[in-house]
Amino acid sequence: MGVSEYTVNDEIIKLKVDCGDSGIIIKKYSYEYKNHSLYITLKGNAFSSSNKGIDTLSIKNTFNGLDNIYLFDGKSSKKVWSQSNKLQSTIQKLEGDNASEKNYLFYNEADDLKTLRLNFKSDYNEEPIIGVTLYKDGEPVSTKVQIIDTSIHDGGHFTIGLKQYVQYFNEIKLLTDQNKTLTLKTGQYFFEKVNIKNEIPEKERLSLESYNTWDDGAKFRFNASFSYTTKGLLNYQVYLPKGSLNNLKIKENHSTKEQGNRLNITVNCDSPKKVEHAASYEMMIVQNNGTKQYVMNTVSVAIQPDDKK
Q: Counting C-beta atoms within 10 Å of the first and last residue's C-beta, which end of the chain has fewer, N or C?
């Protein structure tokens, strides 16, 4: 006797019972709830010429704090569901195929915080998230994480802030206000350390006025317009993480056009490499004025697998 399918949520409990070779046809059942456990007693008889019976048990979930479900067939009882089943199902829905995704980003030491949006495959808002730890292959690498979002929302978005440099992580442990923990595969996050202090005075900066992007698979285009007041300070550089160049084989070229007091920049990126899993990288456009610099814009570029083009 066992359960081949189950649905347990805040409204309903449904269990599809597989009696196997026990010779039992379920005619009716009763249940009792005590000590955070639901005990279901099956009532039936041996197979006969009539094989009509019940194979799916349906019970309205009015049980606060349900942790376990047991089935009893008159001879023995068996645990068929527990909160750990629910938690594992939640984790699988959140992770999806995240483990295979690679992300190459910058960590600017001159900033107090690196804001990072993680992407999961579903939402989690059952309990507020109050703690975050980053892991590398099961080993903790940082607890210095600022919680910006207290839930995973809007199709899987979860934003955090890194207070210290982390070279790499691929898992995250979330702690809720009910002391529940969820350890999730985030995908692989690689960070390249830079130190750009934004020391160019505001009146000499190239200021972003507008921009738009276009992408198709690994192809990406960035068009932006920057205003300026000092014509002789139009030097800039496009930065890509070394990991995106070496592993994703990203190729970049850019062009500029002056129009009045505007500098229009177009950046094109592409890769000849076949992309098998989703990936992403950051692109920074930095103004240079002698030894001083200023981050004009940072863009996150997503790459979809070739079979999803």
A: C
